[in-house]
Each structure stands twice: as structure tokens, then as C-alpha cells.
């Protein structure tokens, strides 16, 4: 009777790729479009092989440019459309404030993140530039484009003054000093009649918005102008953080300045340069602020504004441009669009900031690295609980190992150790104690040959404190430059006894493996 043969059922092992992948051209790096004046590619695409199907694929190693393009396109389209559709001017006003605050936070991120200077005088620089340009416009008729230039000069001068203490103070003490400067500016503005203390601010400055525009036209022009300022601030952040100054300062992080200075990096000069560049940019933003709002008010120096800016950076994540933008979007959205909730919206911002500090390492944009570390730890624990002690490779782990010789070697080593464990008997141990050197039986020679070809990592050896008189057992590190460690405090008077002690430790490790 002929029974038809059925083909065996094949199952895929390991993780599957759920995201669609482009067809590729082998294991090759592709560099096409680059950022202007840099060697950085817009998209870093790598040709790889699928480990399961061996199909050629192209993998985008850095997807941030794609997310940035989608996010900026959404910011350019969604707020105006939503404002027109909902017939709400407050939405477009909140969007303009978001773009302006995002520009301030991007420049502030250069000071705190790139330069490592904990300065809280950001609003002092912006407010000083805004008041100076507004006063010149109200008093002497300075046009709006001149107000922006005056703001940049004012920001540079303020940066020079604030940077002087930065060469002597750092950390908490410098933060307190700059916080005092902000309060000093607020008190000076509130008590000055020339700066509008009686009217609650200095208004009447020139604006870039034409007088014949409608209300919706003014809001649209103001929003896109603020969005352009945010894009310029983002370009400045990329230019400084991604070029020479940023690389120098990343080589000299906090508490490692001595190493950077030893290799010839003048980190103090680089920090001051970044601080002055950022102060000038903040001054330009302050001048634009005065033209946008047609003046300035003492609320610029308020402690509530400073705390909101800190919340934006903490929630988004310190040291990343996307963290500054997304954190600003969340905080401004809660503060400006949920006005009906009253003081409760500030409570929500505080709770969001507290949750970010307690449950994330570096804001919202540090959650990905935190999740990947947690996922890898859970996977390793699960594999350890399922696999036997001895190095056998589980199927899902074998998929991630590209060099299959490693899998074969680990399986062979496990079987070899299982066979050698049966050779460790009292007779073999006594034979080695009597004659640790010279000719041995077949079982003892097999054990010694396996011990001799073992890896150098944690391999036992002898250290002669006094030649022919005193020996100790040590374990080699297997890493160049890392000294070996002492195994115990026992000392042996002759070489044969020390050899036998090493043999016993190796046998014990083999039995327990």
C-alpha cells in the first residue's frame, strides 16, 4: 500500500519584522543627500540581509529626519486649518506663543545641554533685548527690522556680562546668581516709569505686521513668522551642537574636564563661545518678541514663566532638540488651551513634570532607550530561566547571532564539559597531587588539555611573590590593561602544591558549570 509522503511543516524561529522594509542592494552603506556645509547625510541607509529569508533589504538607521519633516509639516498646516475650521483665534495665538517659546528653549538647550552651563538668565537676556528695542522704537521711531538687530547687540552685551562669573562659578551657585539677575531685572522694570511701570508694560513699538491686515491675516502672518524664528533656532542648534564646538564640548562633559584639558581641548573657551552665540540668538528673539507683541511687559521676567520654561525642558528631555520642541508643545497646549480649568492646569503641568522625573531617565525622549534597556534585561532573564547552565543556545537567541560558528562552538563546548565531568574522580585528583607535572593517565591528560586551551577570561594562574618560596593563585582578566585579581589569601610554599591548588579550582568550576 503506497502512503503519500507529506512535506514537513517548517516554523519560523525568533523575532519577526513587523515593519515593511525596502528592497536593498546588499551589505553596503548608501550616502546620497547631505546637509549643507556638512558631511552629515540626511538619511543614513544601510543595505542588510534578512537573517531569516536572506533577502536583500535597505534599513534606515536614523529615522529622526523623517519624523522632523512630518512634524514640521504638521506644524505648518494643522494650526491654521484648525483655527479657521473652529473659528477660534486663541488656537492660532497659542501656536505662535508655542513657536516663540520653542525657539527660546532650543537656544537655551545649547547653554544647558551643549555648553553645560546651568544658567537661568535666559529670560533676563530675552527681556533686556525686548525692552531695549521697544524703548528705542517708542522713543526714536526705530523700525521693526532695526529692533531685531538692536536685540541681538543687547543680547551679546548681556551675554558678556553674565559669562564673566561663569569662569569662576559653576553648578548650583551659578544658577542662583543668574536667578538673582532675573529678579533684579524684574524689579528694575517694575519700578521704572520710562519702561512703563504705570501702564503695565512698554507698548507702541513698530511691528512687522501691516496695518491694513485683517485680524485673521495678522494672526496667520504672526504664526508663520514665529515658526520661521523656531526653524532658524533649530538650524542654529544643529550648526553649533553638530559641528566643532559641539564635538569639543561632548568630549569634555561635567566632572571629566581634566581629561579633556590633558588631551589639548580648551573647553572653557568653547563653553564661553557657545554661551555668547546663544546669548546673541536670545537677544535676536527678544527683539522679534518686541516687534511681534508691539512692546514688552514685566511678565517676561516673572518666576512663573521661568518655571514653565524649566518644565518644558524637563518634560521633553535635556540635551535634545526634539525634547525642547515637544516639551514646549505639551506645556503651552495645557497652559493656553485649557484656560477654563483655571489654576488646575498648572497642577496638571506639575504632575506631568513630577511623573517625568520619577519614571523616566531623560524626559519623554529618553523613554525609548530606557524601554530598550528594560526589554533586553527581561529577554536575558527569560533566556537564562529557560536555558541550561553550560552555554547551550536557545532558538530565539540563535537568530540574533550572525556568526553560526559561535553556536556550534558553544554546543561542542557544552558536550565536552559534560563528558569531562565524569572523569573527575578521587583517583584522578590523587594522581595529580602526587605528580602534577610529567606523564599522566588518559583521563587526567584530557582534563589538563581542556584547562590549558580555555579562554583567558578568569583563567587561573600562579603569581610568584618570592620565586621558589611563595606563590598565590590569581585570575586573569583577559582584557589588555586590566590587572589580574587575587582569588584568595592562601599562600603556597612550593610550586607543586600551587599547581595542584589551581587544578582543584578548575575542577570545581567545571563541576559547577
| Main sheet properties | 4 strands, antiparallel
Approximate helicity band: 55-70%
Return residue spans where pLDDT drops below 50 for at least 5 consecutive residues.
24-30
State the strand order across the main sheet: 1-4-3-2
Which structural class fits the helix and strand makeup?
alpha+beta
Proportion of beta-strand residues: 5-15%
**Total beta-strand segments:** 9
Radius of gyration, in angstroms, nearest whole number: 34 Å
Shape: elongated
Query: Residue-averaged pLDDT, rounded?
Result: 81
What do you see in this structure?
- This protein has 513 residues and is α+β, with helices and mostly antiparallel strands.
- The protein is built from 18 helices and nine strands.
- The protein has helices spanning 64-86, 89-114, 122-140, 144-166, 172-191, 215-241, 244-250, 257-262, 267-293, 303-316, 321-337, 344-359, 367-386, 395-400, 404-421, 426-434, 442-452, 495-512, and strands at residues 22-23, 29-30, 45-49, 56-60, 202-203, 295-296, 460-466, 470-475, 485-486.
- The chain has a four-stranded antiparallel sheet, with no helix packed on it. A three-stranded antiparallel sheet has the order 7-8-9, with helices on one face.
- Helix 10 (303-316) runs parallel beside helix 12 (344-359).
- The two termini are 52 Å apart.
- Residues 24-30 have low confidence and may be disordered.
Amino acid at each position: 500500500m503506497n502512503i503519500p509522503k507529506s512535506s514537513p511543516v517548517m516554523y519560523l524561529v525568533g523575532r519577526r519584522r513587523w515593519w515593511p522594509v525596502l528592497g536593498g542592494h546588499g551589505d553596503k552603506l548608501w550616502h546620497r543627500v547631505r546637509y549643507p556645509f556638512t558631511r552629515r547625510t540626511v538619511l543614513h541607509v544601510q543595505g542588510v540581509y534578512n537573517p531569516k529569508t536572506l533577502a536583500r533589504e535597505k534599513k534606515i538607521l536614523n529615522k529622526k529626519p523623517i519624523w522632523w519633516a512630518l512634524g514640521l509639516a504638521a506644524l505648518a498646516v494643522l494650526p491654521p486649518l484648525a483655527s479657521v475650521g473652529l473659528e477660534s483665534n486663541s488656537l492660532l495665538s497659542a501656536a505662535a506663543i508655542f513657536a516663540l517659546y520653542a525657539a527660546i528653549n532650543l537656544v537655551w538647550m545649547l547653554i544647558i545641554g551643549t555648553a553645560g552651563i546651568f544658567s537661568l538668565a535666559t529670560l533676563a537676556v530675552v527681556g533686556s533685548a525686548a525692552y531695549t528695542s521697544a524703548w528705542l522704537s517708542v522713543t526714536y521711531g526705530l523700525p521693526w527690522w532695526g529692533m531685531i538687530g538692536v536685540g541681538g547687540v543687547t543680547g551679546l552685551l548681556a551675554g558678556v556680562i553674565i559669562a564673566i562669573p561663569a569662569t569662576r562659578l559653576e553648578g548650583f551657585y551659578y544658577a542662583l546668581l543668574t536667578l538673582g539677575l532675573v529678579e533684579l531685572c524684574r524689579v528694575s522694570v517694575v519700578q521704572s516709569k520710562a519702561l512703563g511701570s504705570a501702564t503695565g508694560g512698554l507698548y507702541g513699538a513698530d511691528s512687522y505686521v501691516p496695518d491694513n491686515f485683517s485680524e485673521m491675516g495678522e494672526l496667520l502672518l504672526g504664526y508663520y513668522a514665529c515658526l520661521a524664528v523656531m526653524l532658524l533656532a533649530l538650524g542654529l542648534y544643529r550648526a553649533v551642537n553638530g559641528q566643532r564646538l559641539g564635538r569639543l564640548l561632548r568630549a569634555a562633559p561635567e566632572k571629566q574636564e581634566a581629561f579633556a584639558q590633558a588631551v589639548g581641548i580648551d573647553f572653557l573657551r568653547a563653553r564661553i563661545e557657545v554661551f555668547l552665540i546663544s546669548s546673541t540668538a536670545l537677544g535676536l528673539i527678544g527683539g522679534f518678541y518686541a516687534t511681534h507683541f508691539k512692546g514688552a511687559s514685566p511678565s517676561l521676567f516673572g518666576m512663573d514663566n521661568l518655571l514653565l520654561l524649566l518644565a518644558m525642558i524637563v518634560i521633553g528631555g535635556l540635551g535634545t532638540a526634539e525634547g525642547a520642541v515637544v516639551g514646549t508643545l505639551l506645556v503651552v497646549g495645557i497652559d493656553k488651551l485649557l484656560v477654563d480649568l483655571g489654576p488646575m492646569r498648572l497642577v496638571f503641568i506639575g504632575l506631568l513634570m513630577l511623573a517625568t522625573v520619577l519614571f523616566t531617565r531623560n524626559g519623554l525622549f529618553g523613554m525609548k532607550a530606557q524601554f530598550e534597556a528594560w526589554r533586553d534585561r527581561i529577554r536575558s532573564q527569560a533566556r537564562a530561566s529557560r536555558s541550561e547552565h553550560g552555554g547551550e543556545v536557545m532558538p530565539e537567541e540563535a537568530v540574533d547571532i550572525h556568526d553560526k560558528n559561535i553556536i556550534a562552538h558553544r554546543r561542542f563546548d557544552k558536550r565536552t564539559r559534560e563528558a569531562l565531568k565524569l572523569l573527575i574522580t578521587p583517583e584522578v585528583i590523587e594522581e595529580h597531587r602526587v605528580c602534577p607535572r610529567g606523564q599522566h593517565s588518559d583521563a587526567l591528560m584530557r582534563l589538563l588539555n581542556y584547562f590549558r586551551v580555555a579562554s583567558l577570561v578568569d583563567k587561573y594562574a600562579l603569581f610568584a611573590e618570592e620565586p621558589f618560596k611563595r606563590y598565590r593563585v590569581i585570575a586573569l582578566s583577559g582584557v589588555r590593561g586590566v590587572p589580574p585579581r587575587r582569588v584568595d589569601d592562601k599562600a603556597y610554599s612550593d610550586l607543586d602544591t600551587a599547581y595542584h591548588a589551581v587544578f582543584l579550582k578548575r575542577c570545581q568550576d567545571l563541576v559547577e558549570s
